[in-house]
Amino acid sequence: MPTISFVKNHAPIEVESGAILMDALRAAGLPVASSCQGDGVCARCRIQILKGSENLSPINSVEQMLRDRLRIEKGIRISCQTQVLGDITVDTSYW
Ligand code: FES
Question: Does domain 3-91 have CATH number 1.10.10.10?
């Protein structure tokens, strides 16, 4: 099972392979900003990927549209559109 690690304030968590990153974080009690609740509209659910970006699902068309429109930097993923396939380390500014 993939492990999600953090650089502050939370112990690592194990998740099912293929879990949606936003859902997995929320299930572990971590807040994830959102105003569309995962519909792929608001882009507020951005999560910084510090390690293991190769262990995430490829950017889908919804995420690509948001990335293009908002010029989202490399190293940030739209967590409601991203599946966890292997070990990663993540952070946000508000944790
Ligand atoms: S929660 Fe709105 S785009 Fe992810």
Answer: no
